[in-house]
């Protein structure tokens, strides 16, 4: 009998634990083996082990934790998270808590290189550090991910404007395992609810897709987040009687469906460049260009290469139209095979700068006002 998959915690939780341990050491001069953290979302206290604590200067300390996302296919598993904390007297008009990104924390290109430390991480740090501060104290926290730059090369962060490291991203402290049935059940329940209201639903792979779909004018009530559970949710849509689907997502994710890969997590299957190259061959690209596409580091780099060709715009349109047709057909076939239902499927693919690459004819038919 298989044991139940174990949940863990998201990266911001460990960054917060390191900061709390370092601040506590500066306040009490006692190295802690573990710290209690209020996750805020969800509202519960958890104990996080502390690996090391060191005093760097009289009012500056370093603490280290190690990421544990549970039984999750997460590339940050076991990576060290450092927090350097310095304590000083608080100037009258300044914030009590200053949060900075150090080595290995990504920089947001669309925000002038600002550290990729997002809302939940800041809320977590502020909520747990504030009670430890004495009146008139100010603390500066610098989060460091020593392996961040190296690990970031294995993500699509750069495609979304985050470079030189990882993001402290998340909306909750709990990291649910990829295989956790609860996560899929939650998505299926949302789909079933919305299928009662609409004949057409819009599947968005991630938060980026959800955000862009809203900005493109799609009804938020028709949007369904799929995460990497595209296959099971396609089947569920068929079983719930949905008549048509729009798959809205980043080309580096949705392209997998063109190769009949219906679980899109990169740890499970990754043939993006091979699929792109095959589609290039299908539309008649030269052997030399096909070899360069296959040798590209990422799908975003391959797209850039295509755009740089003499007739790049036309070439991108041809190849991505072919990719969208393949995605639509494969998805329809998948639903027909596993749910024994016919559902029309159309796709919208966008690039790393959130520009729409291609729109299936069905999407234009279902949403006449949609513009690229």
UniProtKB/TrEMBL annotation:
GO biological process: anaerobic cobalamin biosynthetic process; methylation
Native source organism of the sequence: Euhalothece natronophila Z-M001
InterPro entries recorded: CbiD, CbiD_sf
SUPFAM superfamilies assigned: CbiD-like
Record-linked Pfam families: CbiD (PF01888)
Name of the gene this protein is made from: cbiD
The protein's Enzyme Commission number: 2.1.1.195
Top-rank taxon, per record: Bacteria
PANTHER family, sorted: COBALT-PRECORRIN-5B C(1)-METHYLTRANSFERASE
Biological pathway: Cofactor biosynthesis; adenosylcobalamin biosynthesis; cob(II)yrinate a,c-diamide from sirohydrochlorin (anaerobic route): step 6/10
The protein's name: Cobalt-precorrin-5B C(1)-methyltransferase
């Amino acid at each position: 009998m298989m044991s139940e998959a174990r949940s863990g915690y998201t990266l911001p939780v460990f960054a917060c634990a390191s900061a709390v341990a370092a601040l506590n050491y500066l306040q009490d001069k006692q190295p802690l083996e573990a710290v209690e953290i209020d996750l805020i979302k969800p509202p519960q206290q958890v104990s996080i082990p502390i690996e090391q604590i060191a005093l760097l200067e009289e009012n500056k300390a370093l603490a280290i934790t190690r990421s544990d996302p549970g039984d999750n296919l997460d590339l940050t598993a076991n990576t060290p998270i450092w927090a350097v904390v310095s304590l000083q007297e608080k100037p009258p008009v300044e914030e009590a808590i200053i949060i900075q990104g150090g080595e290995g924390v990504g920089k947001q290109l669309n925000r002038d290189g600002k550290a990729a430390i997002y809302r939940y991480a800041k809320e977590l740090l502020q909520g747990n550090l504030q009670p430890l501060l004495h009146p008139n104290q100010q603390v500066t926290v610098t989060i460091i991910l020593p392996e961040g730059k190296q690990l970031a090369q294995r993500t699509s962060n750069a495609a979304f404007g985050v470079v030189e490291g990882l993001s402290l991203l998340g909306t909750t402290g709990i990291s649910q395992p990829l295989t956790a049935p609860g996560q899929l059940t939650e998505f299926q329940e949302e789909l079933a609810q919305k299928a009662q209201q609409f004949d057409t639903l819009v599947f968005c792979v991630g938060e980026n897709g959800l955000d862009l779909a809203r900005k493109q004018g799609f009804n938020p009530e028709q949007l369904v987040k799929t995460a990497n559970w595209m296959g099971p949710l396609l089947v569920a849509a068929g079983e719930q009687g949905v008549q048509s689907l729009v798959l809205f997502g980043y080309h580096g994710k949705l392209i997998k469906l063109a190769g009949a890969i219906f679980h899109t997590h990169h740890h499970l299957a990754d043939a993006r460049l091979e699929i792109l190259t095959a589609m290039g061959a299908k539309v008649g690209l030269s052997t030399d260009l096909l070899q360069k596409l296959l040798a590209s580091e990422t799908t975003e780099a391959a797209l850039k290469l295509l755009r740089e060709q003499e007739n790049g715009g036309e070439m991108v349109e041809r190849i991505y139209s072919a990719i969208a047709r393949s995605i639509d057909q494969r998805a329809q076939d998948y639903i027909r095979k596993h749910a024994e239902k016919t559902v029309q499927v159309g796709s919208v693919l966008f690039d790393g700068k959130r520009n729409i690459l291609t729109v299936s004819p069905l999407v234009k038919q279902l949403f006449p006002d949609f513009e690229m």
